[in-house]
Each structure stands twice: as structure tokens, then as C-alpha cells.
Amino acid sequence: MADIRHEIPADRAGRSGPDSGGKHKGGGMAHSGLKSFAGLMARQGILVAFVLFLIAFSVFSDRFLSAENIFSVVRSSAIIGVMALGVTVVVIGGNLDLSVGSMLSFSTVLVVDLHDKIGPGPAIVVTVLATLCLGAINGLLVGVARLNSLIVTLGMLSAIQGLTLIYSGGKNVDIVHQDTTWFKIFGRGYIADIPVPIVIFAICAIVLHVVMAYTPFGRRIYATGGNPTAAVFSGIRRSRVVFATYLISALTVAIAAIVLGSRVMGSQNNVGQGYELQVLAGVILGGTSLLGGSGTIWKSVIGVLILGFIQNGLLLLGFEYYVQWLVTWVVIILAVWLDIAAKRGRLLSPIA
Amino acid sequence: MSASHIPQPDTPALRLEGIVKTFPGVRALDDVGFDVRAGEVHALLGENGAGKSTLMKVLAGMYEPDEGSIYIEGEAVTMRSPLEAKARGVVLIHQELSLAEEMSVAENIYLGELPRKSLGRVDWKTLHSNAQAILDRLKCGFDSKRQVGTLSIANQQMVEIARALTVEAKVVVFDEPTASLTDAEKVVLFDIINDLKARGAGIVYISHRMDEIFTLADRISVLRDGGYRGTLIKSETNEDEVIQLMIGRALDLTRRRAAAKTGKVALQVEGLSCGKLFEDVSFELREGEVLGFYGLVGAGRTEIAETLFGLRKPSAGRILIDGTEVEISSPADAIKKGISLVPESRKEQGLVLGMNCRDNITLPQVGDLTKGPFVSDGAEIAIFDRYYEALKIKTPSWRQAVGNLSGGNQQKIVIGKWLAMNPRILIVDEPTRGIDVGSKSEIHDLIRTLAGEGYAVIVISSEMPEVMHVSDRIVAMFHGRIMRSFTTEEVTEDNLVAAISGIETDKVA
Amino acid sequence: MSHSVLKSPLGWLAGNPIWGFIALIFIFFSFANPYFFALQNFQNILVQTSTIGVIALGMTLVMINGNIDLSVGAVVALAASLCVDIQGWSLFADWGNWAILPGVVAALLAGTALGALNGLIVWKTGVDAFIVTLGAMLGVRGLVFVYTKEQSFFAMNFSFSDFGSSSIGPIPTLAALFLICTAIVHFVLSRTVHGRNTYAVGGNRSAAVNAGIRVGPHMMINFMIVGFLAALAGVTLSSQMGAATPNLGTNYELWVITSVVLGGTKLKGGAGTITGTLGGVLAIGILRNGMNLMQVPAFYVLVILGSILIAVLLLDKQLNRKGKEELRL
């Protein structure tokens, strides 16, 4: 499905492409000024939008820019944020992962349920391993068997949902002694006055950013997503790379589940339902192309934070909770539209 | 530059004047002008990258020229889309098929113009009777209800041709139409072309094949480096003159390079087969030697290269490197064994277009360029710089995305990427396809230099001058088999052409 | 598969393996459960599948085009809410049973309009349909919650819910409606110019453009059709329940896409049939119904369905292998 999009006719691709590395051989000054603005919007449009949002909200609400409010937004974005990091890796590798939402339900139910049965430490270990197994199934089917990732992870979404319900028997789970367990630190603790979920989010973001930007492994993921055929022709073992991206995605889900379980100290069977959308929205807002091969971890962080701040800002302004979904709708489409419009050099698609 | 010195009695079916088309960094067409008369076959010749395909796309309305005019039967026209071109009576038979495989032959022929009945229904009766009439005229042996995806490539091409015949075409452009046809199918095609000619259409016939051109054409126009180089009348010219016009100099086949000093056998292939793609292929390659593989598209040359690079599993035969039998299970494995492949299609197989120049060059070895767990920036830039200078790559910086470079520089990046692996055996598939002449000769020189340095090199090419120029020995392939192997002393244009056309050269010689 | 084989029944089955699968599970459940093989139960299956089925018809067109519509579930909820809410407006208090009409009309219009909006955005912006409808999936659902204030609506007019459980002779009305829609969409896809162009646009987009097919408006029409059908599903669903909840239609996009893919429509576009989709829908319907009768917990059904979807994909991959000669990429 994803191979017919964004075709740029050869004669237009270079003529007005904004991203020519800042090197303009000819061209008037005024023209290049305009061009570099377009270039800025194309490269950093998401940041510009973010700043505009912050300014707009802070004008209309005094509380918006308070440290307390900002912490609370970041903390509440942390769970979706951590998952978005993993999904970003998968998407850069050229695939999708729609199963993260139901995987989150599964892992949260698992870690909370096992907490009282085998203790927090073993519960965490078992949860991480079990979640990695689910990721490995995704990885085998998409990476090794080369099945369409959209359908595979759609199928896994349904299957894992069932698995969760089978495990829990349809009952919600919770932790009995909430105050005495050290497990509470992940969701409710503080390190140097910073909420632990934020710390975990930040650490995950930094680690994955370093992996993606500075290691050979990260480079191979970009190459595989950018041009799988050329990657294979370059001696990259594509199956392994794709497999690994799904393991990473599963790992971030497991981490998110631990934070969520610790914060709520209980879990419903469908706690992660719909999260895959929020996560994907954050990733797309961050400018990661669903075609693969481009995108960065830190921009996904911004994408998720934008969603968080929109949500928070709209609430502070007195809108109903669900208005944020409407706004997200518009924002996602605008973000992607502007991105590809900048690349093709014209606003509207050339489709007749 | 005069288009033709022949007096023109009547209005030509098609007339081009001063056509200019530029792409970033390339002047693809530079002041091209000639005319095509009604009822003539006008061959258009030029090496790869000479501008033929761009000109063709201008004719078909896929590109708008920057300058110049197009006249159809004396009337100036602008054509902004293939549809508009077709309405003007100009149709293009694509080299790449543009068919919807799940649909029937008739639906493909009348795509976009399906006859209607009430309720928006397709008038199947009219559709199939009209389509069948065209198929019959083309002497096609298949039914108009047949699903296109189930047809052979040659028959699919017939569907393309049939599609062009739904209008009363004034100008029909054939782009390498015989590339995938058998001899029998070619005869049918030539009949069709002669039939169209008799009906008064002007035919533009683009091909590489001298024999076809001298069979079919009335006049021959030549493009080189995007410029028009003249028109020759078939009856008054010969192949040498055409070739000379095409490559800008006399093809000097008398001057042979002295055979290079070659070392020991680096690669030995014995009875290698891969299903029906190629069968029973045996050859050896020495250090310091350039072995040319020449043949038509689909003769199995690329598939051999892919097998040697671990991309295909051979069904029979042995591969020996330095006398030891090896099994090459993947490209990573091939790289470990010292084999590099510069693939046929740089955009699809060679490069990650969105990545920068440096990262593309270091991609196969990025795992080794590390400091601790991280990629070493310095080591990467050092490698880039080495090949940036050695290959004279033109790019503002290593940060440039390779997608923004010209074809020649992209190709140099791919070559650099594989040289950087320091291979023992270097396979180059179509090293100069679609790049300008300057870069071409640079790449040829480079290949010779590499051989001089002791690399064992295989060059696969569809361009005869190229193969003859760079190779120490030439292997001619036809339908998945090696027909004959030539030394530089033995090879002539004639026996090479004969060998790749499946003619037993021994009988000819 | 070759052309001549297509004409034999066995060859037809090879092209539409889903019907073979249906026969298998049909026979299995007939023997495994005494309640399965009964007219009453067949009626049930048809009614149960009609909601997903109606949407799947439209989704087939959109997917043959090479697009996808993830917003159908949310459209179901919006249409249901509009339909039930509007028929209860005091404005129509003395319209009697006719009060249902404006509700239905508004629901269908809303669905068609949202489809048009999706299609227009895909056409004009060139943004991938996946992203456009992903956004709409979230946005339209938000719209439903805002509109309903997170409340359920109940139909006060019993004729409305009676309609949902009525029958025309032995055939439940909703099942009949589904079958009629199936026939119409099948006709459109296989017999009309628009339908044939649907294959052309999905199969070879540049060829379609070159042939002068206006790809943008064409795709928009198909988005409108799926929007309309999703809204219709919302109306029939609310009529079955006599109510509309804002969470209605959650996960429907998954069920619908699963059915369509099971029916042999390719995600890449260009291939697929309504008979295949009907098979996909029935297969899922029979599976759910049969497992339900055998008292398999609903949880297992989810796992089985997910597994079947993936298994079909694996099978398809194996069948389409080019043999040992192919490039190892």
C-alpha cells in the first residue's frame, strides 16, 4: 500500500525542492531567502508549530506555562512517549506497529497480576520477557516471513487483546499493598524532584537517540527503511534488522507497562486500547515518514509532547476532553501535508 | 545545424524545432530539431543518456519542453499530458509496460475510454468487438477477454501497441520495442510497423540495434549528449557512418590494447546454473583482468552477478575462489569473501537516496568503522574524502543527500562504496547507464586502473563500444548460456553481434 | 493461474479459496454443534454479519483503489447517534413514524460527507489515505463524544427497533438489505465504467492517469461510498439495538479490513472482488457464531481471528512465490 505515495516527478524534484543542503548555485537573494524559509519550515516545521502552540496557550491561560503544569503534562505523556520511541524505530525501519496498544494492556495486566504472586522483581522480569516474545512474533512475521506489517500487527492487535482477556479471565487486576511495595517508584516516585516517569522517558529517549544516530545498528535501520533493496545489496541482513526493531518496540511497551502499572497500581484489560493511534499520531507529528528511512527520535518526543500540550491546553481553556481528538485530526493532516508539500514544491497534489 | 539536406515536398507529420529541456544540473535536450514525414519510419539513435528517452517523453506529453516548438501536420501544438498528445494523434509505445494486470486485454486497450451504456454500465459487446478487431489486425493469437497479467511479456507489449491503435495515429513512437521479443514476434511487429507506415503514419523508431534500423528505417536521426547530430538517409549511408555520428568519433577497433599482465585465477565458475535464468555457465577470472559480459537484456548476465553476490541460490555448479570451492549464502557473505557488486540499477539497488553521500559510501562497512559502540565520524569522513578525491565526485559536501546528485556522481558514489570495501573481485553491472559522456570515460579509465592495480573485474554491459573498450576478454551470452568467449584479438563487432543473437559463430567465421 | 483454469469450478475455488474455507468450517460446525445447522441460526449469522458486511463492501472499493479507510468505526458511531438523536427531536414530535426519516437521512448524509472529506483530502493534499483516515478515526470519534456528551441515546419510537428485528418472509430485513447492497456494489464493481476504473487506478495508477481517468475525483467517490455504507451500518446497528452509544463501532475497522483481506483483496490495490469480500465476511460471521454456539469464550475468538488473518497472509505469500530462482532480498 505504501509504495505509490508521494511520487515526485523528476523534473520537479530538484527544481523547487527546499532541501538542497543550503547550497544555491544561482538564484537571487530574495528568492533564496524565501527558499530558506520554506526550507526551515520543511525541516523544522514541527518545532515552529510547537513553539506557536506554546505561545498561544500561554497567552490564554496563566497556568499553562507554570512548572507544575509542564511537569504534569510531560509526566502524563511519558507512557505514550516511551512507546512512541519504540514505534519510531519500527517506522524508520520501514514498517508499522499497530499492536503496541493491546500489547500495553497485556503487559500491564501481567506485571500487576504477577506483582502480588511472585513479587515485583520477578514480575518485571517475566513481563519484559513475555512482551519481548510478542515483539519477536511480530518481528518474525514481518522481518523474516516478509508479511505486510499493517496486517500482521492488526492481527496481533486482536490476538493479544484475546490473550490478555484469556490470562485475566476478563477480570481487572490490582495490587493489594500499594503503599509498601517498591514497585510504586516507577509511576509515583521522584528523583531529585523530577517524577520518575519523566526520568524514564528521558533516559529511553536518550538511549534510543544515541542508538539511532550514532551506532552502526541505527544506520542499518535507516538504510533498511530508506531502501530495503539497496540495504540488502549493501550486505545488510534485512530480516535481522527488522526483527530487532520489533524487539525494541516491544521493550518500550514493557517499560511503559511497568510505569503505567506502578502509577495506577492496577489494570483493566483494555487499558491500552486506542494507544496505538495516539502513539502513531505522535510519531507522525514528529515528522517521521511512514515510508521509512527518515525521522528522528527526538522529533517524536516533540510530537508526543505537542499532543500532550494540546490536550492540556485545551482542557485549561475549558474545552471538553474529546475536543483534543478533533484538534489532533487537523494537526496530523496539516503536519504531513505541509511536509510533503515542501518536498514536492507545491501545496496541492498534482493528481488530476 | 541543418536538420536535413533533403528537400521537403509536403508538410511533415511531425516537426520539432529547437527543443530544449533541462533538469537540475543536466541539459537533457539541447536545441533538438528534425522532422518525421507521413509514411516514413524515422529511426532515432543515440547511446544511453543521449537524450532519446527525454525527447520521447516530450513527444508523449509527459514533459513540457523549456523551449522550442512541436508541429503536427504543420500546426504548432502544446501537449501537456499523454492524453492531450493522444488526442493530437501522437502515441507512444512504452518500453516499460503500463498495464493494469488484473484487468482484461480489452479493458486495458480502452483504458479511460470504456464504451458506456445506461446506468454507467460498460458496453462489453462493443468493447470486446472493437478490441478484438484491433487484436486481429495485429494478428495477436489471444482473446480480448484474457486477463493481461496472464500474458507473456511479448503479448503484453502487443496490448500496448493495440492501445496506441485505438486512435487514428499520425505519429507513433516505438521505444526499444523489440527488447523482449522473440524473432517470430519481431517479424509480426515489423509487419505492423510497415502497415502503419502504409496507412500514412509517421513512425519514430528508437532502438540500439543496427540490424533492425537498417531493415526498417527510411531515415536515421542521431542524438549525442542531448544534442541533435544530424539525419542520414538509410540508402545513402552505412553502419560505420551512423556509429561515428553516434559516438562522435570513428569506432577504432583496430587499435587493441595490449593484453594486461594478469595474475593467478581469482574466481572460477564451473557449470553454474540457476533454474532457467542461466544454465551451465563456466568461466575463470584472473587478477588484473577485466572480463566483459556482453549480451541482450535478459540474457542472464545480471543474474550471474547476483548469484555470485549471494542474492540467488544456484541450482547447480561450483564457484571457486582462489581454487577453493565456496558457498555464497548472502551479500554479507560475498563481501566477506572479497566480492563487491556495483548493481545494475543505482537508484533501486545501489543507493539509499535520502541518505547523505558519506553514509552511502560507508554503508557496507559501517559496522567496522567504530570507536567503542559508536560509528567513528573521523573514519567515515576519511573514507569519503578518499573516494571523493579519487573519483572526482562533484558534491558540495558529504552531507548532501545522494538523491540530489547527478546520475554520474551517484554512480561514482556506488562505485566508491564498493571500492572502499577493498574487494578482490569487483563486479560492475552496467557501469555507465544513463550518465553523461564525460563521466563515462572517467569510469572506463577507472575500471582499467583498478585492473592495473590487481583487481579482478567483471564488467557487464549492453553497450558494445564500452565492452570492447574496457575488457581484456569478452563473454557473449544468449538466452542464459555463454555462446562464446573472445580475446581482444578475436573480437569484432560482427562476431560479437552474431554471438549474442544466438547465431553459431563458428559457422559464420 | 491460467485463464482456462479459471472457468472450471475447481479453478474458481483456487482463485477464491475463502469459499473453500467457508465450506470447511460450515461442515465442521454442522457436525460439532447441534444448534448450528438450523434456519434460525443461519438468519442469525446473516444479521450478525450484515453490519460489518455492509462496510466491507465499500472498503473493498477503497482498497482496490490502493487506499484504506480507518475511520469507518467512528462513522458508524456518528451515524447511529445522529439517527437516534434526531428522530427524537421535538421538531419531529408529530411526524409519527416519519420522524425516523430525517434521522436516517442526516446519518447517511453525514457519513457520505465525511467520506467526501477524506477523499478530498487524499486527492488534494496527496497525503497517504492511511494517515488521513487515521486522523479521521480519532477526530470523528472525538466529534461523536462531543456531540453526544458521552451519553447514549435511546430510540423512543419502537417502530425503529422493530425494523431492526423484522423479516421479509424468511429473510431478516437487515440481512436482505445487506444482500441487496452486496448485489449493487458487485454490479458497480464488475459492470460499470466506474467499477472497472477502480481496478485501473489501483492496478497501475500512472497508466490510469495517462489514460485520462481523473484519479482524484474517482477515489473521492469511493471514499463517499464507504462513508455512506458505514453510516448505513450505523443506522441498522442502532435499529437493532434501539439505541446508540458513543463507543459503537470501536474496532470495526479491524474487523472490516480483516474480512476484506480474507476475501482476497490486495493491500497494494488493483485486485479484489465483492464475491471474495462476501466470503470473507461470512467466514468471520460463521466462525464467531459457531464458536459462540460451542461456548468458546469470546477471548479465544479474538486470538483465533488474529491468527487466521496472519495465516491467510502467510498462505498467500507461499502461493505467490516465484520459486527457488527468485532474488533473496
TrEMBL record, chain B:
<keyword id="KW-0547">Nucleotide-binding</keyword>
<dbReference type="Pfam" id="PF00005">
    <property type="entry name" value="ABC_tran"/>
</dbReference>
<keyword id="KW-1003">Cell membrane</keyword>
<feature type="domain" description="ABC transporter">
    <location>
        <begin position="248"/>
        <end position="504"/>
    </location>
</feature>
<dbReference type="InterPro" id="IPR027417">
    <property type="entry name" value="P-loop_NTPase"/>
</dbReference>
<dbReference type="GO" id="GO:0016887">
    <property type="term" value="F:ATP hydrolysis activity"/>
</dbReference>
<protein>
    <submittedName>
        <fullName>Ribose ABC transporter ATP-binding protein</fullName>
    </submittedName>
</protein>
<keyword id="KW-0762">Sugar transport</keyword>
<keyword id="KW-0067">ATP-binding</keyword>
<feature type="domain" description="ABC transporter">
    <location>
        <begin position="14"/>
        <end position="250"/>
    </location>
</feature>
<keyword id="KW-1278">Translocase</keyword>
<keyword id="KW-0813">Transport</keyword>
<dbReference type="InterPro" id="IPR003439">
    <property type="entry name" value="ABC_transporter-like_ATP-bd"/>
</dbReference>
<keyword id="KW-0472">Membrane</keyword>
<dbReference type="InterPro" id="IPR050107">
    <property type="entry name" value="ABC_carbohydrate_import_ATPase"/>
</dbReference>
<dbReference type="InterPro" id="IPR017871">
    <property type="entry name" value="ABC_transporter-like_CS"/>
</dbReference>
<keyword id="KW-0677">Repeat</keyword>
<dbReference type="GO" id="GO:0005524">
    <property type="term" value="F:ATP binding"/>
</dbReference>
<dbReference type="InterPro" id="IPR003593">
    <property type="entry name" value="AAA+_ATPase"/>
</dbReference>
<dbReference type="GO" id="GO:0005886">
    <property type="term" value="C:plasma membrane"/>
</dbReference>
From TrEMBL, chain C:
<feature type="transmembrane region" description="Helical">
    <location>
        <begin position="12"/>
        <end position="33"/>
    </location>
</feature>
<keyword id="KW-0813">Transport</keyword>
<dbReference type="Pfam" id="PF02653">
    <property type="entry name" value="BPD_transp_2"/>
</dbReference>
<protein>
    <submittedName>
        <fullName>Ribose ABC transporter</fullName>
    </submittedName>
</protein>
<dbReference type="InterPro" id="IPR001851">
    <property type="entry name" value="ABC_transp_permease"/>
</dbReference>
<feature type="transmembrane region" description="Helical">
    <location>
        <begin position="45"/>
        <end position="64"/>
    </location>
</feature>
<keyword id="KW-0472">Membrane</keyword>
<feature type="transmembrane region" description="Helical">
    <location>
        <begin position="98"/>
        <end position="117"/>
    </location>
</feature>
<dbReference type="GO" id="GO:0022857">
    <property type="term" value="F:transmembrane transporter activity"/>
</dbReference>
<keyword id="KW-1133">Transmembrane helix</keyword>
<feature type="transmembrane region" description="Helical">
    <location>
        <begin position="129"/>
        <end position="148"/>
    </location>
</feature>
<keyword id="KW-0812">Transmembrane</keyword>
<keyword id="KW-1003">Cell membrane</keyword>
<keyword id="KW-0997">Cell inner membrane</keyword>
<feature type="transmembrane region" description="Helical">
    <location>
        <begin position="297"/>
        <end position="315"/>
    </location>
</feature>
<feature type="transmembrane region" description="Helical">
    <location>
        <begin position="168"/>
        <end position="189"/>
    </location>
</feature>
<feature type="transmembrane region" description="Helical">
    <location>
        <begin position="223"/>
        <end position="243"/>
    </location>
</feature>
<dbReference type="GO" id="GO:0005886">
    <property type="term" value="C:plasma membrane"/>
</dbReference>
